[in-house]
């Protein structure tokens, strides 16, 4: 039941009654401390096992190795493993599965693969769980080719893949937009009499919808229902999101409305997706009605919900309403993030309220919220747009001092501003600096400077840049 503190207190009562614990009881106690991340206590129980003359067993060592992995101390877990092996104690598949899982969780997938090879050559035949753990980690890191290679190796070695293997691979293939291969794997599963579960179908349905391939997604949904797998709230959220992505918000609303009849209750994500869909189409009234419905049903809006509404209100010219919603966020204890403030900053800049926008940037930084490159790009573009290029240069310098890595968009915004005030030397110097920082100028960079030079009849300079642009294959 995972009530570890109660189990420990019962053990202490047990001891006060002068009843000597046996090895089985001590292993339970040791395991409790491991799950509570109290490894010093866990190792003191190991000392007690030895002191009482009991022999620690594989269960003891597995609990300790698992505890060290849970606490994030994988290095110590591996060292302890080596000590145990050195003392001649046997370890089993659970031990190695735990170590492989621990390494994968801290991003050490390569080390996990090396451990798999070591097990295979010296200890035992690896099992499906070990392979699955590494395959899943590789897929999450988008290293799908390596994951597929490991899958093939696993099959060749006579280890049968299970539903977890297929689900991980399908997720990885979907993330890198290899949907044909993902659906081929679904067919392979069916041929091998492995029944796809809700997670398998949800992964594929969501991927097809995100690609705007509504027909394939709905076909998959039909296959899912035919296979006896009942759609859940995640499935319906994918449907709603998919329809919103192709601007068919009325169909999304229909799916949303019919969810309760299909045995799925809309959650905060369902509302947030549909609210965002309405806001993207500037149907802010409908979005606000949904927002009020959420509150009536005691579904607490999250930061994503508020961000969609604030962005929608800003883009619809209702900035005062957006500020009120920001205050409501604070009152409800819902933290605003950089996305929230970027929407407000963008609108202030478009309304030429640059002093307010600059003050907002300082406020963001003062609150410990990390602005991103987009934040600075919007402000620099806004300042340059009203001719405040010197202030824009200061903001750009502040951006660099803060240690941000500039991208082509922020550099283009600054170059555009410099060209507006005929600071061509500075614009060209920034273009050169971009290349030094591995931020290659794009076609827009060249076009900004070339057009500005032509407007000032600096045709020769413009022609040189045009030749360079052609040589780079940007025209």
Automatic annotation (TrEMBL):
Gene3D superfamilies noted in UniProt: Tetratricopeptide repeat domain
GO CC field: chloroplast
Listed GO MF terms: mRNA binding
Keywords of this entry: Repeat
Superkingdom assignment: Eukaryota
PPR repeats: 22-56, 57-91, 92-126, 127-161, 162-196, 197-231, 232-266, 267-301, 302-336, 337-371, 372-406, 407-441, 442-475
Family, similarity comment: Belongs to the PPR family. P subfamily.
Protein name: Pentacotripeptide-repeat region of PRORP domain-containing protein
Organism ancestry: Eukaryota, Viridiplantae, Streptophyta, Embryophyta, Tracheophyta
């Amino acid at each position: 039941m995972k009530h570890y503190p109660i189990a420990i207190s019962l053990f202490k009562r047990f001891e006060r009654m002068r009843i000597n614990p046996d090895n089985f009881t001590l292993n339970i106690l040791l395991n409790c401390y491991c799950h509570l991340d109290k490894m010093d206590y866990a190792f003191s129980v190991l000392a007690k096992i030895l002191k009482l003359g009991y022999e620690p067993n594989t269960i003891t060592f597995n609990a300790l190795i698992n505890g060290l992995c849970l606490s994030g101390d994988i290095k110590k877990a591996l060292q302890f493993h080596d000590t145990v092996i050195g003392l001649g104690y046997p370890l089993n598949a659970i031990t190695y599965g735990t170590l492989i899982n621990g390494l994968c969780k801290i991003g050490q997938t390569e080390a996990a693969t090396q451990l798999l090879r070591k097990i295979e050559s010296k200890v035992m035949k690896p099992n499906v769980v070990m392979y699955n753990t590494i395959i899943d980690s590789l897929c999450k890191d988008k290293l799908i080719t390596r994951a597929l290679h490991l899958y093939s190796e696993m099959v060749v070695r006579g280890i049968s893949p299970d539903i977890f293997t297929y689900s991980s691979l399908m997720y990885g293939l979907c993330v890198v937009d290899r949907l044909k291969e993902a659906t081929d794997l679904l067919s392979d599963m069916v041929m091998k009499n492995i029944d796809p579960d809700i997670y398998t179908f949800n992964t594929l349905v969501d991927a097809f919808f995100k690609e705007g391939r509504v027909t394939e997604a709905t076909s998959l949904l039909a296959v899912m229902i035919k296979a006896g797998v009942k759609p859940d709230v995640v499935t319906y959220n994918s449907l709603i999101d998919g329809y919103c992505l192709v601007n068919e918000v009325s169909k999304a609303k229909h799916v949303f409305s019919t969810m309760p009849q299909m045995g799925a209750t809309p959650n905060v994500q369902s509302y947030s997706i549909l609210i965002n869909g309405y806001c993207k189409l500037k149907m802010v009234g409908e979005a606000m009605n949904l927002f009020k419905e959420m509150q009536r049903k005691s579904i607490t809006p999250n930061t994503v919900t508020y961000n969609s509404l604030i962005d929608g209100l800003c883009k619809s010219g209702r900035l005062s309403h957006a500020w009120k919603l920001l205050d409501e966020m604070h009152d409800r204890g819902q933290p605003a993030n950089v996305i929230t403030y970027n929407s407000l900053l963008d609108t202030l800049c478009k309304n030429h309220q640059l002093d307010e926008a600059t003050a907002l940037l300082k406020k963001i930084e003062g609150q410990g919220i990390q602005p991103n490159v987009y934040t600075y790009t919007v402000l620099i573009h806004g300042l340059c747009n009203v001719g405040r290029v010197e202030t824009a240069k200061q903001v750009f310098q502040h951006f660099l001092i803060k240690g941000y890595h500039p991208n082509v968009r922020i550099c283009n915004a600054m170059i555009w501003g410099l060209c507006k005030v005929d600071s061509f030397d500075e614009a060209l110097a920034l273009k050169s600096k971009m290349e030094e920082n591995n931020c290659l100028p794009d076609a827009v960079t060249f076009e900004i400077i070339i057009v500005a030079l032509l407007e000032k009849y600096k045709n020769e300079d413009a022609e040189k840049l045009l030749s360079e642009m052609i040589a780079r294959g940007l025209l």
